[in-house]
Write the structure tokens for this entry.
Amino acid sequence: VIRRVIGLTDVAVGTIYEAANGQEALKILEANSVQAVFTDINMPVMTGVELLREMAQRPGWNDTLRIVISTDGSRLRREEARELNATLYIEKPFRPEVVRDVLSQIAGAGAC
């Protein structure tokens, strides 16, 4: 879904990697230079929170933007994500314009 939304934004981005879960995402992050990660909280094998926790423990990934997109918009979940260096928390359902605006800000900062 995120890949389709990104395609609709008309914001120029580099390579887009996809992972079915946090464990796959970690492998991608270890093998590639990635400026931004969009993650859901609820994923099989390794959740988005576990992914954020792993990322927070790796100093070389401090500059990687972390955008959480989730149906769980509870205060507790948002605080947990913020403590794990989440840059932004987008609650589902969301409008494609929200992702467009985030990508525009990232691209404006030279990070896309």
